[in-house]
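Researcher: Let's run the pair from yesterday's discussion. Sequence first, then tokens, for each.
Model: Starting with the first of the pair.
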Amino acid sequence: MSGLVLEGGAFRGLFSCGVLDALLDEQVEFPYVIGVSSGASYGISYVSRQRGRNWEVTQSYTQSSDYLHARNFLRHRSIMNTSLVFDDIPTQHIPFDFSTFFSSPTKFVTVCADAFSLKGYYYPKEEYDLSGRLCQASCSLPFYFPPVYFKGRKLVDGGLADPIPLPHSEQDGNEANLVVLTKPKSYRHYLKPDERALLMYYGRRSPNATSWLRLRPHYFNYVFSRCLKEDGSSKNVSLFVDEEYMIPRFTRDLDKLKALYEHGYEAAMHRMDEIKDLVRAK
């Protein structure tokens, strides 16, 4: 079986949106999809077969201060209006096709992290309900979003537990994978200021979390290097963002977001024969 692995990266995930729309245009159906953070929130529209929906939401709402603005911290304790993003838009404004999503034979896995230990939890699509709580949980990066309570657990951004869930896809039986990264080939991870702040926050509260946060950059770089090394082999195909298209995590510049989306579409189309072979071979 073949898998589709979607990294997070907030609005850098527009690269992934372009890739997903190219797959839909070419009628490429992966039997298994795993997404983390924005990879999950964008990936659900691939499973529901709603070509262009992710870009429609971006184009319609990104420049609205009600959607994304620092003042939202005062009203919503979040950089985004989470009620609008995860409740109103998918149910009222740009409806998400829950029926197709649930009836699809595609397996869809969403990665979240325990807010205390940062242990990873992997939710199949059967765990979804008609709210956007599970997607919201996977995207809830500390300092930008509050944690989400879901079915008895307090959850935060899945990327803190498993930033590139390729090994988990393999563990689930996928011998070949298309891995969509939201960073350039030259990228190497290190402890960033917000991660250092997390280390200070967890301190003695959670030794497991602090230990993992120190190891996480090394783990990320290990999986990322695998993606580089195995790209183009019969095992995996990996797509990377070119340096010139890199954007800030929460930019509101529609021109840059559109360019990134189109870059993802073109990157996938350029390697579509390899991608199709990957799906057919497994």
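Model: Moving on to the second of the pair.
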Amino acid sequence: MQGDKQDDGGMPGDYISRREALYGPLRREGVFTWDHMYGEEYALAGLYKLSPGELAEMREAAEALGRIYARTVSVVQQGGPPLWTELGLPEAAFGALRLRFDESVPTMIGRFDFAHTAEGWKMLEFNSDTPTGIVEAFHANGRICAAYGEADPNAGCSEQLAGAFRRMVELYREAGCGTVRIVFSALGWHEEDAGTTRYLLERSGLEGAVFVPLEDLRVQDDRLLAPEAGAAGGGEGAEVPMAPVDVLYRLHALEKLAEDRDDDGYPTGAHVLELIAAGRVAIINPPSGFAAQTKALQALIWSLHESGQFYSEEEHAAIGRYMLPTYMEPSTALEAGIPHVGKPILGREGSSVTIYDGSGAVLESSGELEYADQPMVYQPFVELPRIRVETLNGPFDGRLLWGCFLIDGQGSAVVARVGGAITSNMSYYLPCALKTE
């Protein structure tokens, strides 16, 4: 896969017209509307082909790592504040972190990010709390493959979503949680997050579930409230009937929720986390997904692996095969004299990531400081495969990053991104198809 090039699949027309033929219908249907973001091209009109063997191994890696994370998270959740603080988890979420519902899976919807290297697939991080790229992988990719007459590697994967939602709600019901009123929520103004959340609502198959923007949710005493069906959007100053939320799917990271405050300074997010801890509202992804989100957990897993502790022989083999050495201090990597990467433990989309050479000098930085005040983890630098893609601005020489979704413990849809050495929020989405072998 090194030095690869996208395939136009023989689809006629120049790039602009070909791209519009692919994404125009998706945009008009209202399911995938963010093929441009922030005035820039996001979704590409090319097609990358991966082999069935590569797809199978990526999913196998995701499932093996999912089992390792599940086992580790279960122990972490039974820990206490000193451990959670060391892992960088916010104090406001400690009560929620104690809640365990299914120790066989680390989260309901997660995405492992992989680099394809000469040594095989290497996991870079686990997006286990609020992963995105879902509509691209589970919906848009199939439509693009159909337009090209190619096989979709993600065919049938969207069916896993409904089963996962049903099982999660049933787990909450068995645990004594209310499950009557189910709300899906994201920032209403955020096109990608709101669109992703509405797509998951539709795919969930949960009867009576509704979408409510985060800004329309309210906290009152011991309940989280949302406008009753048909009540949202009343005139300014109008009294909107509200009703309690039993289950909340939220595309809003828990570490951000922990910091959320009302305009008057009231810590609304911390209050919601208290309601979660008290069982007044159940959340999807579950709290275990947040515990798995911190990259400090990668350092913990690697430390246990290096010492030969805790994991089975099979699990140690998977860790050595698919994970990178990860540490909370750069000294180990510096002693080896190899290029390495520093990443904030709860960072996202490449923000505040820095690449160093073997002496510790900066080779490249994201240039963003959003998470610069967080503790860092350090890993050997893994060079992503080079790829040339066609864009509206002409040919682009970038680096290829893969994501593989883990749905309720099962390897699922894959998604490809093309960016720089550090994959940022504005990296391109590149559809993918299966090679015929």
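Researcher: Give me one sentence on the second I can quote.
Model: The CA atoms of residues 49 and 433 lie 5 Å apart.
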